[in-house]
Amino acid sequence: MAPHKTTPDYDSDDAMQDVESMQVDSVSAKERTVKDDLEHMFDDDLDDEPMVDASNAHKNSSGKVNITAISDIPSANPSDPEDMLQFYSRLFPWRQLFRWLNHSELPSTDFAHREFAFTLHNDAYLRYQCYPTFETLRRDVLNLNPSRFEIGPVYSTKPRDRKQAKGSFKPIEKELVFDIDLTDYDEIRTCCSKTKICIKCWQFVTMAIKVIDVALRDDFGFQHIMWVYSGRRGAHAWVCDKKARKLDDGKRRAIAAYFEVVKGSSQSGKKVNLERPLHPHIRRSHDILKDDFKQNILENQDPFRTEKQAERLLQLLPDRQLKEALREKWDSTIERPSSDKWKDIDALAGSGVSKASYVS
Ligand SMILES: [Zn+2]
């Protein structure tokens, strides 16, 4: 996978209002596409290294991490520098950011050697900024008033001193980050496309969170996972365990591959080719998402309603007899809902039209 750069923090799109108040611990359902933002973290070409958005998370009094988006504030405009300045000076959780990245109350190189990068309102991009404390970071942010800032890796030395360090300057750790983005779901979401999102398609994000979170905990043993709203059309998982931060590129790629179920380009027909028996992680994900599939996909997205959509579904069935029987049934009922069509597949497969079983 190519290095992935996350999207800007804030989006003034009205559609965002529905999802901005989500709480990080309200993990909910389906895996489809995940991208390991940190791939190539240890590449030699440091200038190509992806950065990850600065958090827009803060902890509330109950200790839960809330999503803070500037568009939560009545009449605030994230593209207005003055509003951003107010946000950084009054609302941004600087101390929590420091405690999170420093792993201790006492200032350490975990924070001091961490790279921050700023995008300014004139689109200038400043990399390799670093700070001994959150106060110094805050002061710079208030001076620069960036439209966004990003958190990079911890380096072997202060990123500002990289020229003096010459060959020994290299990234030594970084959280393992997964990016779930609704634009990756455009082929299967019917309610919105591209930059638009609504509460219906947000369910794809919650489904992905549900299965990824459990796999990261149960299969890899990670414990410190922070889910944050990406600021636009998705969510990011920051896996902060020490063993995750120390992973090299190869291991990061291997973990990303573990989650990969959908393969192929937009032109290819069947993109999910699972071997039977199912891997326990896939079986568990299937079980977790069973109800979501019925409600959020078949009912709410209704992705097989039209003739054209139904034909796409039929193309995925390998059994010719079953396919013909379904086509005949569906041709006689215009725009039969997806949930009924799904039941038809089970019913006809079970009735012996086909010898293969499609009932899972
Ligand atoms: Zn939608």
UniProtKB/TrEMBL annotation:
The keyword Endoplasmic reticulum does not apply. It holds the Pfam family DNA_primase_S. InterPro entries: DNA_primase_S, DNA_primase_ssu_euk/arc. GO terms for molecular function: DNA-directed RNA polymerase activity; metal ion binding. One of its GO terms (biological process) is DNA replication, synthesis of primer. Residues 28-43 have a biased composition (Basic and acidic residues). Transmembrane segments: none annotated. Residues 1-45 are annotated as: Disordered. Belongs to the eukaryotic-type primase small subunit family. This is DNA primase.
